[in-house]
Amino acid sequence: MVSVGNNGNQTVYHIKQGAQGSLLTIKNFSLWYGASQALFDVTMSVERGLVTALIGPSGCGKSTLLRCINRMNDLIDSVRVSGQVLYEDKDIFSPKLDVIALRKTMGMVFQKPNPFPMSIFDNVVYPLRVDGVRDKKLLQETAKKALQAAALWDEVEDRLGDNALGLSGGQQQRLCIARAIAAEPDVLLMDEPCSALDPVATAKIEDLIDDLKGRFTIIIVTHNMQQAARVSDNTAFMYLGRLIEYGETSRIFTNPKVEKTMDYVTGRFG
Amino acid sequence: MRNASSKAGEAPQYAPRPRTSDASWNLKARGEPFLWGLGGALVIGILMIAGFTILILYNGVLTFWPQPIYKVSLKDGAVIAGELTRVETYKPEPAELARLDQEARSDIASRGGLVNRDLYRIGNYDLYSEDYRWINDYDIAATEAPPDMYFFERLEWGPFLGAIKSADLNGRIVLGNELTWATVAEAQEWAASRRNRIRNIERYQIGAINYRLEEARLELRKVEISHGKDTPEHEKAFEEYQKQTQRLHAQYEELSKEAAGIKERDEKYTITLADSQGREKNIKLSEIVRFYPANALTLQQKIAIYLSRWWEFLSSEPREANTEGGVLPAIFGTFCMTVLMSLAVAPLGIVAALYLREYAKQGTLVSLVRICVNNLAGVPSIVYGVFGLGFFAYVLGGNIDRLLYPERLPTPTFGTGGLLWASLTLALLTVPVVIVATEEALSAVPKSMREGSLACGASRWQTIRYIILPRALPGIMTGLILAMARGAGEVAPLMLVGVVKMAPALPIDQFFPYIHLDRSFMHLGFHIYDIGFQSRNSEAARPMVYVTTLLLVGLVFLMNALSIIIRNRLKKKFQAGHF
To answer: CB–CB of B421/B518 below 8 Å?
Structure first.
């Protein structure tokens, strides 16, 4: 399947369909930072329950695209967008949309671990607290569940009251994942979650993503192609703000339809 | 790439760069002169601060130490007694030298025409009409320190230096052997307690009655304003007023009778003093605040006197036009004003900075506002004082008076300088400091924290409340500390908006509403100016200037230290090691 965008943008699609249909549909989406355009007419859909990886060389717009999904780009004053991002058939950029409610349905993990300067427990239950949950028992159960899911429970079980900044880098990142999944979101957005971690911590996080697969729809931006190949079902290859190829991961990494994708995944450029 | 080319045998030729001068001698290249300059600037700065601190500490700490009294006999037969305060060297006029005999003149000439002279604090202002006297060294025949010289601190006329001649204790004349320090001291203690009792009655109990009388009058006036004269309401209120005033007047009579009784008894306890030349002076025992034989004190006694003087300084009210007694009202006023100012400036500055940094769209307008705020910090403080007087006191206060206190007009309540307006004026003066510091602290919070919080579904306010503010708090505290230090030491604007030389009452007392924001108050900074430059005898007030300065610097230091401790605790909490 080949689609031709408004401005001659060509994208090749061969995605693996999820059993539960698609969750997110991006239609002819473009984005500008001030005068410079960062995304060109991107059209794709994200399957519910699967892991979708966004790959591409630095500056190709994959992080920008990810941050549009929960409107983190709102923080930048000069951003302008056109096109649509439909989440459960609601336009994310519609002025009527409640951004806070939208973000509550999505968890996000950032490039660098960013635990808040408070206790481990307070970090994990932060999304619930800002949602108004005050029930201590519920908070404790949620924290335990989230930390177990993030494979951190055994390491911090007896020091939940300690400051989170005292954890190691890998632990901090898993704490951030626990925080992102504590409120049971539908979507987990991961923006290069392993780029600041060593190989051991990276392996742990990848195992974690494998475990979380199926419970959440995961969209992961990564520089590491092996990682994309290992953890994802579908992979989107972006280049200079354009979506070049979007399809089943095994196909993208073994037999891509577009030559540029082939060049990138075999390491000929990037 | 380079490897490849070198392998190919095309190694590039590097010629040594020509040196313009011998680097080991080029001072500019080695940077040493700059280092000397930087270090020198630091040393000069430290020396100035250290010198200032040592000067104040030395003079301030020594002021209350009891000094010996010297009895100096002059060559012309005169005798004076006093505390030696200062020695200086000067060159006498030829006319003055001509008066001297040959021996003295040649002695002076051998020392280059220079002469020492000593400044003695002779006290006894009521006898001599001067507190200090310069004595030339060549005039002195003999100096001694007799053990029977006493130093009396009196309620009026400053200190008296002299001997005790006799004491009249309610008809019992004490003379000769009986006249020991202990006997007189015991009688003086009783007299002091009588004096305190009289003061308590006249100042506090009768003061309270006066306050109630005024309240009653205002109550009546209120009714008169709202209902008019010759109305049944007014008549009723008038009856009530008369009843109250009668009752209060009766109480007043009783109290003044009691006070008169004590005073009458007090008259019977007197002491006769004699100065160094034998001139006698009879005073009431209760007029003596403290007295001691200056030349016959043991170290413990000296320490006791020193401490009791400090205690008096810190805990009592000023007397003798502020040059003696304590500074409690000034300490209290400074403290109240600084606290109120901090209460006003902290929310105002922090909220303004939060809006500027977190909510406002960063653009030309915000930059402009920021520049203006920075410039406000450079406006002369007296301008703020004028603004405070014009806007706060006259406009705001005037309207408050018209609306809320019409019965007190034309006497202004809030329509004149007072604690509230002074605090607000200083808050205005220091708000730029807080805004700038808070903005700095907010912008130092990493973006990843904000993003993390917002991504969790927190609103902007929740992000500020739970993530940004706690993290920025140490920086904000630094700004508040700076603002507080500046506010506590500021004097010029206060002179316009509420600080007075002598406040009749403290801003906090036992009458509802307990904190009287409309009252004028005393301030340590203004107190320094007042005693140093506005008093009858600036030489006599000079030690007090040092002590008061020491106290003000100490107070600012204490408040700063407290805030710094709080800030460091916060810092520790939020900056546990990363990784």
So the answer is: no
Q: Which residues of A touch B (CB under 8 A)?
A: 70, 72, 75, 77, 100-101, 103-104, 106-108, 110, 112, 114-118, 126-127, 129-131, 163, 165-166, 168-169, 172, 176, 179-180, 183, 189
Kindly report the pTM of this predicted structure: 0.79
Query: How many angstroms separate the CA atoms of A67 and A74, rounded?
Result: 9
Q: Which residues of B402-429 are buried (b: 16+ CB within 10 A; e: fewer)?
A: eeebebbeeebbbbbbbbbbbbbbbbbb
Q: For residue B216, tell me if it sits in a domain.
A: yes
Contact status of B255 with chain A (Cβ, < 8 Å): no
Interface of B with A in 433-472 (CB under 8 A): 446-459, 462, 466-467, 470-471
Superfamily of domain A1-104+217-270: P-loop containing nucleotide triphosphate hydrolases (3.40.50.300)
Give chain B positions within 8 Å (CB) of A70. Answer: 455
Q: Is the CB of B362 inside 8 Å of chain A's CB atoms?
A: yes
The mean pLDDT value for B137-159 works out to 87
In this structure, whether the domain defined by A106-185 belongs to CATH 3.40.50.300 is answered with yes
Q: Is residue B52 part of a domain?
A: no
Distance from CA of B455 to the nearest CA of A (A): 6
Closest CA to A238 of A222, A218, A227, A250: A222
Q: CB distance A108–B455 less than 8 Å?
A: yes
Nearest CA in chain B to A104: B457
Q: Is residue A175 within 8 Å of A206, Cβ to Cβ?
A: no
Shared domain for B192 and B101, answered yes or no, is no
Q: What is the pLDDT of residues B320-370, one digit of tens each?
A: 777 788 888 888 888 889 889 999 999 999 999 999 998 888 889 999 999
State whether B136 and B228 are in the same domain.
Answer: no
Q: Rounded to an integer, what distance in angstroms lies between the CA atom of residue B252 and that of residue B210? A: 9
Residue B441 domain boundaries: 328-574
Comparing C-alpha atoms, which of A135, A132, A143, A82 is closest to residue A104?
Answer: A132
Measured CA to CA in angstroms, residue B148 lies from B32, B122, B165, B175 at distances of: 65, 16, 10, 14
From A196's Cα to the closest Cα of chain B, the distance in A is 11
Same domain, B406 and B524: yes
Please give the residue of chain A at the shortest CA–CA distance from B576: A165
Distance from CA of A255 to the nearest CA of B (A): 32
Q: Is B360 on the interface with A (CB under 8 A)?
A: no
Q: Is the peptide bond before A193 cis (omega within 30 degrees of 0)?
A: no
Mutation test of the interface with chain B: which of A69, A99, A100, A176, choosing the one with the most B Cβ atoms within 10 A? Answer: A100
Clarify whether residues B422 and B550 are in a common domain.
yes
Out of B214, B233, B267, a domain closes at B267
Contact check, Cβ <8 Å, B579/A75: no
Nearest beta carbon to residue A103 from set B454, B471, B578: B454
Please report, for the domain that includes residue B125, its CATH number: 2.30.30.720
Domain count within chain B: 3
Q: Which residues of A touch B460 (CB under 8 A)?
A: none
What are the structural domain ranges in chain A? 1-104+217-270, 106-185
CB contact under 8 A, B452 and A114: yes
Q: If you compute the radius of gyration of chain B from its CA atoms, what whole number of angstroms results? A: 34
Which of A57-61, B8-12, B305-309, B343-347 has the least mean pLDDT?
B8-12
Whether residues B229 and B361 share a domain: the answer is no
Q: How many residues does chain A have?
A: 270
Query: How many CA atoms lie within 13 Å of B279's alpha carbon, on the beta-carbon side?
Result: 12
- As for the ipTM of the complex, it is 0.89
Place of tokens 């909510």: B359
Indicate whether B465 and B539 sit together in one domain.
yes
Kindly state whether residues B346 and B438 are assigned to the same domain. Answer: yes
Which of these ranges, A151-165, A168-182, B13-27, B488-502, has the smallest mean pLDDT? B13-27
